[in-house]
């Protein structure tokens, strides 16, 4: 959510302005684009302008996909420039709303943690975990920061490990264990005169930064373009020159799955599917001063959709619906088992 590129390498104010302009061109993606713009404004030091963007989103007449996320980000930002009482009130409201998205819980808890409100941070992490993970055998990837943050705060409080702490340990895949990363005694090594102590601490900090970036700052995926059947029919009716690219809806979907598997086999990480619509494709072609009938635009369109946060992660999680929109479980639709059964 928050870009982590050092300020000396990026003009964050200029990037925020670019994202605001892009949001005007693509109103259907304005929420994601303006959140990124606000993050850049925070990094530039213009926290008041970031708050203005959060307020703009919250007052949107069209409504938001993630209002709790926007409120949590606003609270975190407000607290950083002296508006503690308002930030606390917003965080209380987020907790009361009990969002089903883990991100608002993580951001609210980390804001409390950053200001030494460790007991409140633990309560917030725990409330989110209880709501989202009770009865869940395999925590979704998006919930991992919730468990890692809870583990970190409980270590700082000296609390003994419980079942969720042990679950966080099993999910953590970095070479340095969570107990080492979250050891409260590490802070004392920062005052040591022994170079070996400092070198060990730097190694741990690097590992922690890598884990944090992996969890919270994943790049947009390498995405393959998929046209739902109704959109594909409209596309070929409007632009028949593209018929050679898409012989039939079934073949098109099979080709998408095959392309994703080939990318995965080649070692390409972070794969996804983006779903095209004719109006957005034609708008994209117009922005490129090109004809929608030009097949060379299709990969660029897919990349643009992915950069705008429109990708669905592939492969789907166990038991999830197939990416193609059939409504059937992936395992029974385009998953490896289903394809093998068809071949047999």
Salient structural properties:
344 residues; mainly alpha; Serine Threonine Protein Phosphatase 5, Tetratricopeptide repeat; three-stranded mixed beta sheet; 17 helices
Q: Can you tell me the CATH topology of the largest domain?
A: Serine Threonine Protein Phosphatase 5, Tetratricopeptide repeat
Q: Tell me the domain tally.
A: 2
- How many β-strand runs? 3
Average pLDDT level: 84
Question: Structural class of the helices, strands and pairings?
Answer: mainly alpha
What is the N-to-C order of secondary-structure elements (H for helix, E for strand)?
HHHHHHHHHHHHEHHEHHEH
> What fraction of residues sit in β-strands?
under 5%
Cα-atom Rg, whole angstroms?
23 Å
Spatial ordering of strands, largest sheet: 1-2-3
Report on the architecture of this protein:
With 344 residues, the chain is mainly α. The protein has two domains: 7-216, Tetratricopeptide repeat domain (Serine Threonine Protein Phosphatase 5, Tetratricopeptide repeat, Alpha Horseshoe); 222-343, no CATH class. It has 17 helices and three strands. It has helices at 12-25, 30-44, 47-58, 67-80, 84-97, 102-114, 118-133, 144-157, 163-171, 178-181, 186-189, 195-216, 229-238, 249-265, 278-287, 297-307, 336-343, and strands at residues 222-226, 271-275, 311-314. The chain has a three-stranded mixed β-sheet, sandwiched between helices. The two termini are 44 Å apart.
């Amino acid at each position: 959510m928050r870009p982590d590129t050092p300020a000396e390498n990026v003009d964050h104010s200029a990037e925020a302005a670019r994202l605001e302009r892009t949001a005007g061109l693509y109103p259907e993606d304005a929420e994601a684009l303006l959140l990124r713009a606000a993050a850049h404004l925070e990094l530039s030091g213009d926290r008041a302008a970031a708050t203005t963007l959060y307020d703009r989103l919250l007052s949107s007449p069209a409504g938001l996909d993630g209002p709790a996320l926007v409120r949590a980000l606003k609270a975190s930002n407000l607290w950083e420039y002296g508006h503690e009482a308002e930030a606390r009130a917003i965080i209380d409201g987020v907790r009361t709303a009990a969002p089903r998205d883990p991100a608002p819980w993580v951001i609210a808890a980390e804001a409390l943690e950053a200001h030494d409100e460790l007991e409140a941070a633990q309560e917030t992490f725990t409330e989110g975990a209880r709501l989202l993970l009770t009865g869940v055998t395999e925590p979704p990837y998006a919930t991992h920061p919730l468990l890692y943050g809870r583990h970190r705060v409980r270590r700082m409080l000296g609390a003994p490990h419980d079942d969720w702490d042990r679950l966080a340990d099993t999910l953590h895949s970095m070479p340095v264990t969570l107990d080492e990363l979250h050891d409260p005694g590490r802070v004392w090594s920062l005052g040591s005169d022994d170079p070996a102590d400092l070198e060990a601490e730097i190694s741990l900090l690097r590992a922690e930064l890598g884990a944090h970036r992996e969890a919270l700052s994943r790049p947009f995926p390498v995405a393959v373009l998929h046209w739902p059947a109704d959109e594909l029919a409209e596309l070929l009716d409007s632009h028949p020159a593209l018929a050679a690219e898409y012989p039939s809806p079934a073949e098109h979907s099979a080709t998408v799955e095959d392309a994703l598997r080939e990318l995965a086999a080649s070692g390409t990480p972070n794969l996804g599917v983006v779903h095209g619509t004719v109006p957005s494709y034609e708008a994209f072609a117009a922005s490129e001063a090109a004809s929608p009938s030009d097949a060379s635009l299709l990969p660029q369109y897919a990349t643009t959709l992915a950069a705008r946060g429109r990708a669905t992660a592939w492969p789907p999680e166990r038991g999830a619906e197939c990416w193609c929109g059939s409504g059937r479980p992936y395992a029974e639709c385009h998953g490896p088992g289903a394809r093998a059964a068809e071949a047999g």
